[in-house]
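Tokens for chain A. Residues wanted.
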């Protein structure tokens, strides 16, 4: 689907119009249209095909024409003209935490700053000092943000790369005689972000496969074309490598191009000690091919259990495979419910009923509505009176018999700077699931932030700590906190840690999940969905859980409703 891509371009038009400053209404119109397109639950090309673009909220005739133009030509003439007049690289600058349209406008008007390079130069030369609304602390934060952005500019989120890879795979399957095809690399290991996409193919007519690959509609450049490897760059800048493998080496190639460098070096060392040689063509004893056609044969011939792709990081998985002690990793089908989602009572898009209906369609046995509480005014946080009304509404919904899914009463309660919660105990007591999260004052020192969170999770009515480190991939680093001390307090209080499945969070990370497992901390994989379509993000949480060595028993929402209630009551 091109929804996100089109939403990004409409947003860029909005920002450039804001910078140009000729019309204060047009930027808002394009911004609203961008939000609506991104939230659209249907492929925008299908909407355009039935001539229904103007039915999307905020999309009038003019914006609809520009969307149609992009779908037909790959360009928006309005955006092309704006870029010529205002040569600001919006995506670069907005990637810096805290830099939005108003800051971009100020920087361009005052200093003609257009990109990361010119902004960094202006900071180094002291030109930002004295600008309205930009003090020393802000300058320091922007400088740190530039360093963060530079580290991730060549990376693509898993959630963005995976559908691209799937689309290319489907294109090749439908356009060429493919015997076997697999995605490899860090994408197959389900890393949080990837640098490129690797696709492996087995075919009796490799030239036809290569022809189909380079003719993929979103190809911008063909970087390399050869008999065994072809590389393209897509219009979004992502590189995709196609490798054509012989049948006798396909499994060896899949293993080689999937494992991390450290994992593969470790395997080669084991092979050498056994008097063998391992490479992308196979496992050899002298000139004899011992294994190569199937990936599983490589591990078996080295005396190892088959190691799932998500674990191939040389983080102890090879040692565990030697003695047959690899974990039985959680599967998406193990998940029985989702304990953190939002509705239009706070900052969600959909109603309670719409969220329930979408959850039931996914086969959930239970869900928990966890809207924000009163301190988070920017998200229309609910006060005690509103929470109590919501409790009655959920009771009525559960007793109506309209849906099989059981709706639990919850809230995402703000942890205040002193570690107290922003709802009264007599209301917290009436909730089935209390998730507590930090949403403010994230620059606290390590000791203060740790103490703040520990005080919150030791509260007698708390069940889950939401997005425990506060990070947003590519946008905001984790806050400085002693995560082991928090885990220790959670273990003592019987509080679960959330694995937030929102693709820009994936919080906790894989390393923290392994630590939590070793310490016996239970995990809740939640989507934190703010619209029905985001309930599908559960799969990204499961990917991350597998990278963290988690099994179904480590996760509270793999349990039946009765078992879940027993955990919550503890």
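Reply:
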């Amino acid at each position: 689907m091109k929804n996100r891509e089109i939403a990004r371009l409409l947003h860029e038009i909005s920002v450039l119009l804001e910078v140009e400053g000729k019309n204060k209404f047009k930027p808002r119109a394009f911004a609203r249209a961008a939000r609506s397109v991104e939230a659209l639950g249907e492929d925008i090309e299908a909407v355009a095909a039935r001539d229904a673009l103007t039915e999307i909220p905020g999309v009038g005739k003019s914006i609809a024409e520009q969307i149609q133009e992009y779908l037909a030509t790959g360009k928006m003439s309005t955006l092309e003209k704006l870029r010529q007049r205002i040569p600001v690289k919006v995506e670069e600058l907005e990637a810096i935490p805290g830099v939005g349209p108003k800051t971009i406008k100020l920087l361009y008007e005052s200093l003609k700053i257009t990109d990361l390079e010119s902004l960094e130069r202006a900071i180094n030369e002291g030109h930002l000092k004295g600008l309205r609304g930009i003090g020393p602390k802000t300058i320091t934060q922007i400088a740190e943000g530039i360093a963060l952005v530079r580290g991730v500019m060549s990376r693509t989120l898993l959630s963005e790369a995976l559908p691209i890879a799937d689309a290319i795979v489907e294109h090749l399957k439908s356009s060429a005689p493919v015997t076997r095809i697999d995605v490899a690399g860090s994408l197959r290991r389900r890393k949080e972000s990837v640098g490129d996409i690797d696709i492996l193919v087995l075919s009796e007519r490799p030239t036809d496969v290569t022809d189909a690959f380079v003719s993929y509609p979103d190809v911008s450049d063909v970087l390399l074309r050869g008999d065994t490897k072809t590389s393209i760059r897509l219009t979004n800048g992502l590189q995709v490598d196609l490798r054509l493998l012989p049948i006798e080496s396909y499994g060896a190639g899949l293993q080689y191009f999937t494992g991390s460098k450290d994992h593969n070096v470790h395997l080669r060392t084991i092979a050498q000690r056994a008097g063998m040689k391992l490479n992308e063509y196979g496992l050899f004893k002298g000139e004899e091919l011992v294994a190569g056609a199937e990936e599983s044969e490589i591990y078996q011939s080295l005396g190892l259990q088959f190691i799932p792709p998500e674990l191939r990081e040389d983080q102890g998985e090879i040692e565990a495979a030697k003695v047959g002690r690899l974990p039985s990793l959680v599967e998406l089908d193990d998940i029985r419910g989702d304990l953190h989602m939002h509705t239009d009572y706070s900052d969600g898009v959909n109603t309670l009923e719409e969220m329930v209906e979408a959850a039931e369609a996914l086969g959930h046995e239970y869900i928990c509505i966890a809207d924000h509480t009163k301190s988070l005014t920017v998200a229309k946080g609910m006060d005690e009176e509103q929470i109590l009304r919501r409790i009655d509404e959920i009771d009525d919904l559960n007793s109506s018999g309209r849906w099989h899914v059981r709706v639990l009463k919850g809230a995402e309660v703000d942890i205040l700077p002193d570690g107290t919660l922003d709802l009264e105990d007599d209301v917290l007591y009436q909730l089935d699931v209390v998730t507590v999260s930090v949403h403010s004052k994230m620059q606290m020192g390590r000791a203060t932030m740790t103490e703040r969170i520990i005080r919150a999770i030791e509260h007698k009515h708390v069940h889950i700590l939401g997005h425990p480190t506060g990070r947003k991939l590519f946008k905001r680093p984790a806050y400085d906190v002693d995560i082991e001390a928090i885990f220790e307090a959670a273990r003592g209080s019987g509080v679960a840690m959330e694995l937030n499945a929102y693709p820009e969070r994936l919080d906790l990370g894989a390393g923290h999940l392994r630590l939590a497992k070793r310490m016996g901390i239970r995990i809740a994989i939640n989507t934190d969905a703010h619209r029905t379509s985001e309930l599908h993000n559960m799969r990204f949480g499961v990917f991350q859980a597998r990278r963290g060595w988690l099994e179904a028993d480590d996760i509270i929402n793999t349990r039946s409703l009765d078992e879940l209630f027993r955990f919550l009551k503890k």
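The chain has five domains: 1-86, 95-153, 156-244, 249-322, 332-569. The chain is about 45% helix and 15% strand.
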